[in-house]
Amino acid sequence: MKISDNGILRCGEMMAYYDISGCYILRPNAMKIWNIMRTYFDAVLEKAEVDENYFPLFVSASVLEKEKDHVQGFAPEVAWVTKAGKSDLNVPIAIRPTSETVIYPYFSKWIKSHRDLPLKLNQWNNVVRWEFSKPTPFIRSREFLWQEGHTAHATEEDADNEVGLVLEVLDHYRHLYEEYLAVPVVKGMKSENEKFAGARYTTSVEAFIPETGRGIQGATSHCLGTKFAKMFDIKFTNKEGKNELVWQNSWAYSTRTIGVMIMTHGDDKGLVNPPKVAPIQVIVIPVPFKDADTKEISKACCAVKDALREAGIRAKEDLSDNYSPKWKYSHWEMKGVPLRIEIGPRDLAKNQVRTVRRDNGVKADVPRVGLVEHVKELLGKIQQNMFDVAKQKRDDACVVVKTWDEFVEALGQKKLILAPWCDEAEVEMDVKRRTKDEVGAAKTLCSPFDQPEIPEGTLCFASGKLAKKWTYWGKSY
Amino acid sequence: MKISDNGILRCGEMMAYYDISGCYILRPNAMKIWNIMRTYFDAVLEKAEVDENYFPLFVSASVLEKEKDHVQGFAPEVAWVTKAGKSDLNVPIAIRPTSETVIYPYFSKWIKSHRDLPLKLNQWNNVVRWEFSKPTPFIRSREFLWQEGHTAHATEEDADNEVGLVLEVLDHYRHLYEEYLAVPVVKGMKSENEKFAGARYTTSVEAFIPETGRGIQGATSHCLGTKFAKMFDIKFTNKEGKNELVWQNSWAYSTRTIGVMIMTHGDDKGLVNPPKVAPIQVIVIPVPFKDADTKEISKACCAVKDALREAGIRAKEDLSDNYSPKWKYSHWEMKGVPLRIEIGPRDLAKNQVRTVRRDNGVKADVPRVGLVEHVKELLGKIQQNMFDVAKQKRDDACVVVKTWDEFVEALGQKKLILAPWCDEAEVEMDVKRRTKDEVGAAKTLCSPFDQPEIPEGTLCFASGKLAKKWTYWGKSY
Fold first, then answer.
1. At what angle are helices B28-47 and B256-265 packed, to 10 degrees?
2. Catalyzes what (chains A, B) (predicted)?
3. Ramachandran assignment for B33, one of left (phi > 0), alpha (psi -120 to 50 degrees), beta (any other)
4. Alpha-carbon distance A300 to A317, whole Å?
5. The complex's ipTM?
6. pLDDT (tens digit, 9 = 90+) per residue, B83-107?
7. Strand locations in A368-413, DSSP E?
8. Closest partner residue to B53 among A27, A126, A130, by Cβ?
9. Partners of residue B53 in chain A, C-beta under 8 Å
10. Which residue segments constitute the domains of chain B, with CATH numbers given?
């Protein structure tokens, strides 16, 4: 679904609009999903011996502007503090749009010897990018939450291999999307035009929203090379006693993850939360027909909820007496709870419950005996089905094109396009220009690591030159 | 110890100075302590059904200025964003110094009926107070991390009793200080002058640093009454169908906690971390005398470390070969590791280790058999001893005074002063004025909840009027 359709996000209590344009309130359901992901990623970081730190929100202009490519990429979006109380500051101070320039001057102080490497740090923080294009909750907001990891290494090889974590972290991002959020993503390499400002190369996980026909960058992991090291003079004495520049990497994922999840799974009834991250996994609702023993039914609801909770399932009962069961069904469907359990007089008599899946609406009568195990399995099935359905939709939206005409046609049909490309920055710029007015500017999403074979002599769909690789193209968020 | 003495903080790798005055880098050891406390407090919040949310960093001027007392308190320290990219903003936007005015307009939208109450929210975030007085790491910084809780209730009674959490949360703050950081604190009520800007009343936990003779507010929990509700129009329909204002509370603790811990326990050798929050609880160091079997000793060190880790103790070994054992002792003492284990050839032969406590330097030979249990106990003893010693020092620094002369004398002697007071704001202002030039301005810290008896006819030490309560006074951070 499109984000902010029909106030679904607000009703789903994921976010609320705020009186400053482009800023949004993250409500408890969004924070619960965020924290579940954070717990996973913190364990990853601990295992990889990445330490948590916290650098300031502010960065001085002179430091921010040190790495030219980097600042060019971010300058148009930087928010500036120029006043405190009633006093004008002597020098304006920037709010971090990302922390490379905040952190690296200190890498230069802390790294002296090869014994200080690798240095691996991460922080959980807010960043500000004052975008002037249309803001969208979760997807493109002026302030957002993320983690940013920064590492320094003795050699190019270390930066590129598993010590450097670039591809390892990227795979954990994939894991978060696919296993937690049930969103299929493609791992790949960004083009020269689309890489991070100042990076040697950028890898990413890319998702696609079939309904809007737009790709979306899910998270990125960058190899920075020695560019920042040169600018910030980050050198170490190697084992031979010589001074060398460090090789650096950085990587981040943000609250955008939640937006991609919402767009991938949401439907006409509202949110659909994958069980693994759902703040409430099971909602238990009493269905007291006329003359039924309301008290016994409520008791059964609580007992079921308690049993589920004891087994570690995030269950809740809704015993409120001012709404009808039907109203409650819609309410909890809108909030995206993956599984509903209904208990009425007939269920009570038969010692069973009625289960209703949010993902496909399938209903079933399930005996109370063995219910907890059954629910566990069912949640696993829902998680898998949500991924499978999303993957099928994504795959259905994907076409392989070989010519410009096919490309333009596919773009008009909101497709995710895989095309042979000459990998020239100028050609990508040209594609952007040529598609801008017709169907909306297309760009590269990524060149997948998992490359189909490229027969000799295959030509670039756009330039007619020899193609070097398969690349995903599309309109994007 | 005084914070920032001899670069101890930097060497202890708790923080680093940053190129913007008043902003500091929180390094991994500080973040580990912060996260251990956060884990405790998050569990408290979950049990109390306080939901986590995240409100924006920015607040518009018109909203910030709505509650007059509140804005007067914070206005001099507010940082203003006036530019984004190259454009001037139409209206300057403030960075939150705290989030009452950020959050409460939305309480007004979300709270409609008595069924929506109580509303209990918390967020973990950064706030900015652009202080112009001398900044100190952890204690007074321009940006700091904290949690801020905000609740709304149907009645004054609910706001004041356990539903409102004011005193419950305050006791958890005491718990964090006393049980985690081994810092004794006093729970009490702030004076009219010292209460939170806009609050009905403010409660706090107060610590005292004998070495500097200054009190320090550890954390605060406020009863806001209906003041913000009036300004932001936060009303609900009660059970009788009538509109009423909500009663509100807010409470916060910040990274200042870590600063208080450092000042309380630090000594000439560096930091002393209480075991409960120590990032490393036990450091294991090999002591290979000449001709000793270095390999076997290293192996023993690793085995001990592994056994401790398996039991959930945060242990680490230092096998680096470029430093002497003596250098390592100083290094890990400076970092504040509560317990050192040394293993030399003699220990190896006797199947024992040498333990050295950071808090009191006591050394002991301990058999390898049963070592893990022994270390667990020892860490508990160190934790308790650190608290006992700190409490003894604090108590020794406390004097009861009854006259102005005694008060001034005690103040000159860097004492924590308990005095009978008439509880009049004007008198506190007067005490501040009268002490300012002589020995440094004194103010109230708090009136302890645990009040000694006040004999009838006892007079205020400052005004000579009838005393209403015992109150702690002192210079303060």
1. 120
2. tRNA(Pro) + L-proline + ATP = L-prolyl-tRNA(Pro) + AMP + diphosphate
3. alpha
4. 10
5. 0.96
6. 999 999 999 999 999 999 999 999 9
7. 398-400
8. A27
9. 25-28, 31
10. 6-265 (3.30.930.10), 282-379 (3.40.50.800), 398-476 (3.30.110.30)
